[in-house]
């Protein structure tokens, strides 16, 4: 069971900028990394194929996604500013980690049951 998500600070800044560029629409990215013990280590981001966003939803065509065992979850923005998962987020989130960006710069992580996970931003270079 994952309790912690570790992400480089540089990656966090990049995803925040991506969310700002898509505002007022939601944006969606996939998280690539690995799970070791109770920690998911995020190493990079993937723009999913045919990703689309509106003011209250972001989605992509899962059938167009190549098989990739290194995908550990997704991160998407909530332009409303509320960094809490919706029922739809929990039902359709990709992978065991669901990260949410609350506009303008709050980043939280949850598991598929909606339990908030610890998030650590590291100074490691990618």
Structural notes for this entry:
The protein is α/β, with parallel strands linked by helices and 126 residues long. The protein has a single domain (4-50, 69-122), classed as Cytidine Deaminase, domain 2 (3-Layer(aba) Sandwich), CATH 3.40.140.10. The chain has helices at 9-22, 87-92, and strands at residues 4-8, 28-36, 39-46, 52-53, 58-59, 71-78, 97-102, 106-110, 116-122.
In summary, what is this structure?
The protein is α/β, with parallel strands linked by helices. Helix content is 16%, strand content 41%.
- Computed structural class: alpha/beta
Query: How widely separated are the two ends?
Result: 25 Å
User: Looking across the biggest beta sheet, what order are the strands in?
Assistant: 1-3-2-6-7-8-9
Mean pLDDT: 90
SSE topology string: EHEEEEEHEEE
Low confidence ranges? none
CATH superfamily: Cytidine Deaminase, domain 2
Key phrases:
single chain; 126 residues; seven-stranded mixed β-barrel
Helix and strand layout, with pairings?
Layout: E1 4-8, H1 9-22, E2 28-36, E3 39-46, E4 52-53, E5 58-59, E6 71-78, H2 87-92, E7 97-102, E8 106-110, E9 116-122
